[in-house]
Amino acid sequence: MDIQSIIRKKRNRQELTNEEIRHFVSKFLREEITEGQAAALMSYIYINGLTADEILSLSKAMAESGDMIDLSDIAENVVDKHSTGGVGDKVTLLLLPILASLDIPMATIASRGYGITSAIIDKLDSIPDFKTDLTIEEFKHNLKANSVAVMNQGLNFAPVERKMYKLRNEIACENSLPIIAASLMSLKLATGSNKIVFDIACGKGTYIATNEEAKRLAKLLVKLGKSLDKEVACIITDMNQPLGYEVGHNLEIKEVIMALRGIISEDLGNVLEAVGSTMIALATDHKDLAENSKMIKEAIQSGKAFEKFKEMVAAQKGNTDYIDDPELLEKSKFIMPVLSTESGTVESIDADIVGSIATYLGAGRMKEEDKINRSAGITIKKKIGDTVMVGETLAYIHTDEEKKVSGTTQNLKDAFKITNKRINFKSRVLEIVN
After folding, report:
1. How many angstroms separate the CA atoms of 345 and 303, rounded?
2. Cβ atoms within 10 Å of 162's Cβ, excluding its own
3. N or C, which end of the chain is more exposed by having fewer CB within 10 Å?
4. Where are the beta strands (DSSP E) in 239-376?
């Protein structure tokens, strides 16, 4: 068995065996094949796809490339949530303490991100001293003690998945649905959770462009979950405008804290309740989604979710002073308004433009070695459906580099489309697939 024959088979649209997939994964992990060979195989997968059996084999092989956690001794049902990502997405960070405050164990292994979206580990790094490089023993201890724990995938969890994630972004195969499905499920297999909800965002602010692509991915994940004896549900959400008000690490942590105190944008609350109520339904006997949404609101209004967030931060050695007073988080040297030159109603906000500008300001990384400016980012002041007058602030630019202000102001203004038509709020939740 050699890598050239495996590449040739997939080029010729033939199905790979379990042994061939495991051979590729092990060789790629140990760097015993070239980047060019790995890129060629992934490109042919992108073009020709994978069968259900191939996706299953790839998921298992990636999960088993590193450590795996057995959480059956923690609770009968351990629920996990994963998002495909999007500009301003902080739903996972909110649901961790909310569901844990409802005594639903939340175990998450996450990674750092690339491009216009940041990942949960990047955001948590903004809390001084917060420790995500946990041992398995620390992870399980925190989960048992607090019903919530977050761990960095960058240790030895599905390490080949991380390599494939990086490569598929480099070769413009980031939206290969079979690889995405296998990658997502490999992380959940490594975590040990038996109930999983995937938030599949689609639109301009993420790498899944259309609702149709999102549906195909959702069906793949549900089918894959059944094959692996995991109960899976998928929430398809709209990511054509940024989610919430803040884009950027310190800014998003502050928004999370304020949301847990009850101050939350309508669209963020919309997605939060839809995903959270589905997670509750999977993990408990509470199957009424409307009632589950009420439980989420009560967890926030009572202060239980906020206190659980502080508990989670303290358990992972983070400085809780920054949770009590988010104004302590470092701010950019320059915070400049972007003013509207039109009056009307906001019809759309191009999340791709917003995310690209935020990355340019320093809030994202394009390569693994890139450093993030945690104070950089964008604050959205007007959302779709809001009225705006000439001279009103559409958004704020946060940067430490004055020279970047003038170059981004017009570009950010161009992300907003103003109309004279009446625009009503539309749910960010497009469909639930289970």
Report:
1. 35
2. 21
3. N
4. 246-247, 334-339, 344-349
Q: Distance (Å, rounded) from C-alpha 200 to C-alpha 214?
A: 6
Angle 342-346-348 from CA coordinates, rounded to 5°: 120
Instruction: Give CA angle at 346 (422, 204), nearest 5°.
Output: 120
Evaluate whether 342 touches 357 at the Cβ level (below 8 Å): no
User: Pick from 422, 384, 376, 344: which is nearest to 240 by CA?
Assistant: 384
**Average pLDDT along the chain:** 91
Dist CA 100 CA 122 (whole Å): 21
Q: Which residue has the tokens 């625009």?
A: 423
Q: Based on the fold, state whether residues 295 and 351 are members of the same structural domain.
A: no
Shared-domain flag, residues 159 and 241 = yes
Domain that holds residue 176: 79-324
Among candidate residues 324, 353, 377, the one where a domain is terminated:
324
Last residue of a domain, one of 304, 324, 344: 324
Q: Per the structure block, which two tokens stand in for 36?
A: 């060019």
Question: Are 186 and 264 found together in one domain?
Answer: yes
| Per-residue burial over 303-317, b = 16 or more CB atoms within 10 Å of its CB, e = otherwise | ebbbebbbbbbebbe
Do residues 147 and 269 share a domain? yes
DSSP per position, 41-63: HHHHHHHH---HHHHHHHHHHHH
Mean pLDDT is highest, among 67-81, 196-210, 243-257, for 243-257
Distance CA 5, CA 358 (A): 43
Residues 14-36, mean pLDDT to the nearest whole number: 94
Amino acid at 55: I
Statement: residue 253 has pLDDT above 80: yes
In a domain, 383, yes or no: yes
**Cα–Cα nearest to 250, from 373, 99, 416, 82:** 373
Q: Are residues 14 and 83 in the same domain?
A: no
Same domain? For 137 and 226 the reply is yes
Residue 176 lies in a domain: yes
369 vs 225: CA distance, rounded Å: 34
Q: Are residues 405 and 350 in the same domain?
A: yes
Torsion over CA: 419, 269, 86, 54 (sign) = negative
Residue 293 falls within a domain, yes or no? Answer: yes
CA distance 234 to 248: 26
One domain, residues 273 and 335: no
Give Cα 295 distance to the centre of its chain.
Answer: 23
Q: How many residues does the chain have?
A: 434
H/E element holding 83?
strand 79-83
Residue 406 lies in a domain: yes
* Segment 124-160, tens digit of pLDDT: 999 999 999 988 889 999 999 999 999 887 667 788 8
pLDDT at 14: 96
